[in-house]
Specification:
Blueprint lengths: L10 E6 L19 E2 L2 E2 H11 L4 E6 L3 H7 L4 H9 L3 H12 L2 E6 L6 H6 L2 H4 L4 E4 L3 E4 L7 H12 L2 E7 L9 E7 L5 E8 L10 E2 L3 E4 L3 H6 L11 H11 L2 E5 L3 E4 L3 H13 L5 H11 L1
Parallel strand pairs: 1-4, 1-6, 4-5, 8-13
Antiparallel strand pairs: 2-3, 6-12, 7-14, 8-11, 8-12, 9-10, 10-13
The protein binds uridine 5'-triphosphate.
Length: 295
């Protein structure tokens, strides 16, 4: 995998400990981040995005079904032995590369108390460093050779040393589903964030700029998460801590360039499966013929 410029951001945290209620009953035993899109789990697309941005250490915050996630990045002697004996070298290499692509450190969020709490669980491992956060159920597809969304953020971070998050423009109908930023344009390609509102009503949204789930933070975010009180839906909200960060330390937001799939949602998951499978040379053409026939 081709790696990016050398960034100041070497660590990433991936929260994958939510209850995944939109995918029940499948997610009763399987974390939604491990559901397959084409032939690999959603989580692997997310990790590949981080690694392409030069991330070396990945902190996975897992809840129930933690073993499925850990086992995926572990060696499977029996499987690898079988693949070797049957001379399926390509597949063997692919399996081995997954293990070696980054240092994977898994920690547990014992209770799903909210995204802010999941991020705070990573504090003992992230320590004093700057880090990226990638939601484990969002796939951001960038063409090969193009910067991934995390890389687009780390480039701004490297210049400004200020926390930077990805935003996208959504319709007025959709503001209620996201964290929405109040921000002003700067002379550069990014916005200066004033505050963030979690899932506002249409009438209360300060803009139509929504947070899809890619962030780069300085360690200061932990100071604000440490003191955070439960917010909307009685969860520890990352957006509340982001408002504190914006007020005291500064926060930028940039419109990202990538094809985004909300794979934690049933429709988004199906769209990811169709589009990413269509891109594959082995199954794409046959799937296209099938879909044309169906419609
Ligand atoms: P979501 O709100 O999409 O996840 O959180 P959820 O709560 O599992 O989803 P539903 O609505 O019940 O289907 C976004 C990301 O944050 C993680 C989730 O795993 C997901 O990747 N998350 C959320 C945590 O790790 N811990 C939490 O307490 C909440």
């Amino acid at each position: 995998m081709n790696r990016a410029h050398s960034s100041k951001v070497k660590k990433a945290l991936i929260p994958a400990a939510g209850l995944g209620t939109r995918f029940l009953p499948a997610t009763k035993t399987i974390p939604k981040e491990m559901l397959p899109v084409a032939d690999q789990p959603i989580l692997l697309y997310v990790i590949e995005e981080a690694v392409r941005a030069g991330i070396e250490d990945i902190v996975l915050v897992a809840g129930r079904g933690k073993h499925a996630i850990e086992d995926f990045f572990d060696r499977s002697y029996e499987l690898e032995d079988q693949l070797l004996k049957s001379n399926r070298v390509d597949l063997l290499e692919r399996i081995q590369n997954i293990r070696n692509m980054a240092n994977i450190i898994s920690i547990r969020q014992k209770e799903a108390l909210g995204l802010g709490h999941a991020v705070y669980c990573g504090k003992p491992i992230i320590g004093q460093e700057n880090f990226a956060v990638l939601l484990g159920d969002e796939i951001m597809y960038s063409d090969p050779g193009e910067p991934t969304v995390v890389e687009q953020l780390t480039k701004i971070f490297d210049e400004t040393e200020t926390s930077t998050v990805a935003v996208m423009e959504v319709s007025t109908e959709d503001v209620e589903k996201y964290g929405i930023i109040a921000a002003e344009k700067t002379a550069q390609s990014y916005f200066k964030v004033h505050h963030v509102v979690e899932k506002p009503r249409k009438s209360e949204a300060p803009s139509a700029l929504a947070l899809p789930g890619r962030y780069v933070f300085t360690r200061h975010i932990f100071d604000y998460l440490e003191n955070a009180k439960p917010g909307k839906n009685n969860e520890i909200q990352l957006t509340d801590a982001m408002t504190e960060l914006a007020t005291h330390r500064g926060l930028y937001a940039t419109l990202f360039r990538a094809r985004r799939f909300d794979a934690g949602d049933q429709l988004g998951y199906l769209m990811a499966n169709i589009e990413l499978s269509l891109m594959r040379p082995d199954i794409g053409p046959k799937l296209k013929t099938y879909l044309k026939g169906l419609l």
